[in-house]
Amino acid sequence: MDSDEDDKSSVLQSTNETLVPLQATTLSSLRAAAKALDNARTALNNAQTGVTPVVPVAVVDTLQLEVAKLQARLLEAQNLNAALRDELRVERDQRAEAERERVDLQKALAVSEHARETLEATKEQEQRILAEQRAWIATNLKRMGEYVHSGSISQLPELPPDFQTSSPVMSSTSPTALPPPQSRGDFYRPPRSLSRSRSRSPPPPPQRRRRSPSPCAATSAAGPNRRPRGSAGARPAPRAI
Length: 241
Prior knowledge:
- By secondary structure, the chain is mostly helical.
- Among the domains are: about 25-55; about 55-155.
- It is built from 5 helices and no strands.
C-alpha cells in the first residue's frame, strides 16, 4: 500500500508540479482524487481529438422519438402555411376583381351623370327656345288679327332678322330639328308632309266584296236531282191581268 501511495504521489508530481498538495490523508480520499484526475485526463483527450462522448441507448431512442414528433409537427405547420397562402392568394384576387368592378361602376355612374346633365341642359334650352317662339308667334298673330280687322293686310310687319335662333328646336318624337322659317316676308309654315299627315285621316281598311255564285256552282251545290231556282221545270210566276 505504501508503494501505491508513492506511485500516486509521483504521478501527481510529474503531471503538474504547481498543483496544490492534497489535504486528505486517508486512502479513500486519495482514490477519489485519482479517479477525478483520470476523468479530467479523458475529457481533455476527447476534447483534443474530437471524440464524442458515449450516450446511453435509452436516451438515444427517446431523442429520436422526440425528433420524429417535431418533424411531424413541422410538416403539419408547413402544410397549414401552404393552405393559408392559397387562401390569401384567392382573397387577393377576389379583392382585386371587386376593386376593378368598383372602378368600372364609378366610371359608368360618371358617364350616366354627365349624360343626365347634358339632357337636362338640352331640355332647358329647348323649352326656352319654344317659349320664345310661342311668344313671338302669339304676338304676330295678334298683330295680324288687328291688321285683318283694320283691312290693311299689305302692311304686315316683316320677321325680325334675329328670329332664327342659333340652335333649332328638337322634336320630341323625332331626332331631326324643326325647319327654320322660309323667308322674312312670310310667316312660318309647317312642311307639307306634316300638314298632309294632320289633315288627312288614315284610310279605312279594305272591305272584301262578296261574289255572286255562278250557275255551275249553284248546280253543284243543289245536287244532281235538284234544280236551281229559275231553271226549267220551276213554277212560272203569275202574270198580271
